[in-house]
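Purpose: get a first structural picture of the assembly so the mutagenesis plan has something to point at.
Setup: two entries, given in the order below. No constraints added.
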Amino acid sequence: MKFSIARLLSAGLFVCLLNLLTAGGTVAGELKLKSQLVWGTDGAKPESKEFVELDAKLKDKLKALRWKNYWVIKSEDTRIEGKDPKQAMLGKCAVELSNVGDGQLQVKLFSMAADKKLKLLRTVTEPIKKLENGGTLIIGGDSKDTWDDAWMVIITIAH
Amino acid sequence: MKTIEEDLELQAYADGQLHQLEGLAPGRRAEIERLVGRDAEARAVVDGLRSISQMLRANEPVHSVPASREFYWSQIQRRIQIDERAVDRAAATQHPAHSVWSWRWLAPVLGLGTIMIAIALVSRGDLPGSHPLGEIAVSERGSDNSGAVVFRSESEGVTICWLD
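Result (structure tokens, whole complex):
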């Protein structure tokens, strides 16, 4: 069997292309994420000084939601490596973040009961690539404490 | 005076088909032969029928084929072969040899390339449905099984999962 130089080059190119394409889809290394518990309201700024206004850029992304003000109640940065899940405690709730492979971030949202026990509310997956490209994942719901207000957990890439 | 049955028996006798008559009594054939021998009328009937039969056989028209059977079928076979060659030539004109050769190589290369690109896009999560659960999936594994409304804005890069 004869192996011409052209054939060998073609085979090499093919292998390189295959590696490039398949390796490009894997997420290697660490991933820094920012989790924020945010209160959405049409009311005035709360008295607690700990609450800070949501970043303007992020607020601009919440155009789909109707509230005028968004106050950050708790914020936490999380670094996840490999497939080990990491938790971010956000006051009355918590999120567990994990890279489940296949380019997907899994977010488990827990509520915290009075006895500090966590109760799983929802599991959501989102492409990591989307977050890396400036995307935002929001898991929220209507507030049970205050009529017409809302709470939400906003997850973005930490800078 | 002969009966109808005797006429039928005489006709069958003239045609040599007396044995095929149903219900013919044993010994009846010998009786008919004796009748034809002694009765002039019966003999005249038999002779008349036989002469008509011979005349018909002698004057039966014969249609002859202008060519022999082998030659006739060989003509048909040749015609079929000519038509088949014409169809082959037409197909070859539509798909020249180099076109067939190029497609033989181009089709697998294009297929392989498409598969590789699809694998790459799916693994990067750029394709909708690249994840088994879709671009965004709301799992029902939570203890609260109520539903959720999912809103996604591709232009803003925002995914909102709003719980009930």
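Confidence is low (pLDDT under 50) at residues 125-145 of chain B.
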